[in-house]
Amino acid sequence: MLSQLVTWGLSLIIMIVLPRYLGPEVTGKYYTAVSVWNIMSMVITFGMDMLLAKEIAKDPARISDFYGNSFFLRTSLFILGGLVVAAYAALVHYPSETIVMLVIIGLGTLVWQYASICQASLQGLEKMQYISLANISSKFFSTIVTLILVFMGMGIYLIASVYIGMALVSFLIQNHYVRILHKPQFRINLKQAVGMLKSGFPYLLSGAAITLYLEVDIIIISMLANERTVGWYGSADVLYGTLLFVPTVLMTAVFPALSRENVKDREILKKLVQKSFNLLLLVGVPIGFGIFLIADSLVVLLYGPEFLGSGPVLAIKGLVLTMTYQNMIIGTALISMDKQNPWTLVMTIGTIAVVPLDLILVPWTHNSFGNGAIGASIVFIFTELFMMIAGIRLLPAQTLNKSNLVYSIKVFAAGIIMIAVTWWFRDAFIAIPIIIGAVTYGISALLLRLLSEEDWEILKGVRNTVVTKIQSRRMNPA
Questions:
Q1: Which of 80, 303, 318, 348 is the most exposed place for a label (fewest CB within 10 A)?
Q2: Residues 137, 170 contacting (CB under 8 angstroms)
Q3: For residues 317 and 319, what is the distance between their CA atoms, to the nearest angstrom?
Q4: Does the global pTM surpass 0.85?
């Protein structure tokens, strides 16, 4: 959590500086290149990150069976993926500036694939602190170098190349600690590699559905609208993506435990899912509703008036966020229970639905409001709601129960009260609605008793642990 807060802060600096420096059109070209490679990355990964984390969590001694084979498979699949991207770029006649950025982002993608092998291994070993160290270090590198390049007035190609350096920093740190912790043997066994592809295929389908679901809208906007609209949508989407750090942190920590308890004790697994569901709801509602209230002011403050078109997109994404948090824990729980196939089917239906809905809503909002990105964001309200309902029905009986329903009603009541009070101050200086909203939600949460006695005890325990560690370091300086 601490690492995500640090990296979120560093990312915020880049999110403010880069769009202002590049402008909506160039920003749109950059996001187009990133989206194309994000889609191709799902094929290169081939579901193996989830497979590695899950299998290593069950038996850490098996890490050598996966390590060398993973590097071999990722490199081979990247070469094939590069050929596909080149053919696609030629087919849609991307301008030369976009093609160069595709090459740069592609090289960075290969290094990120190597880093993700190490991250999945560390996740399986439940050594999250080293993942955090790599995230902070790579993001710090990216922030400092990008700011220097912007200050020196460098072009987009050199700035985009920071993506490669950022990936390299993350890989070197994580690979170092994997080799210290477990010293995996780097060996390539074609039979085992084929077995990994077979085992990873169900996770590939799930990952493919998720990636296409998140990225296909930018591709459609680039074809049906223009690069300026892509810049508006991409800038809002990056802000939305950074706000997913809370469920990302929780899922990274909880997934190995869920996988383990799926074998050992299903009752503990259910309790973990229930607790995670409530926690993400408690945090997600004020964040999502708050973004809905201050979206216009936030994008103008961060990006400038040129990006005012990102405001309504971010406002809608704020409402979507409350459902996305829940879908992340539901999906993680289903995968840990070996129900990735039905969850993949749900994701696939949602992804398929995005395309026709985008084809209808993007041109309509582009013609009606001059902003096709609004239509693309509206689509996610329908798809996220569908996936949440379907995912809950796929969970075993009593995984989520009536107590979770009652808790959800209370949390949304607190969120509605927050909106009702803060709405009158939404056009004031941005700090004012944020403070009023936080105070209102906090008071509502206390009155509705959204934190149980057990939750307070956990918070006290965390506080005491942190204080003890700080005092210990003061007494025994390095």
A1: 80
A2: yes
A3: 5
A4: no
CB 450 within 8 A of CB 284: no
Name the amino acid, one letter, at 411: V
Rounded (10°) angle between helices 402-422 and 431-447: 140
Instruction: Determine the straight-line distance between the first and last CA of the chain, rounded to whole angstroms.
Output: 24
Per residue in 256-300, pLDDT tens? 777 777 767 778 888 888 888 888 899 899 999 999 999 888 888
Q: How far is CA 252 from CA 131, 256, 269, in A?
A: 10, 8, 15
Q: How far apart are CA 89 and CA 102, in angstroms?
A: 9
Q: How far apart are CA 277 and CA 326, in angstroms?
A: 6
Whole-angstrom distance, CA of residue 412 vs CA of residue 167 = 39
| pLDDT tens digits for range 312-347 | 999 999 999 999 999 988 888 888 887 878 888 888
Tokens of 34: 């990133």
| Residue 222 amino acid letter | S
Low-confidence ranges of the chain (pLDDT < 70): 1-16, 20, 24, 203, 205-212, 214-215, 225-226, 263, 456, 458-467, 469-478
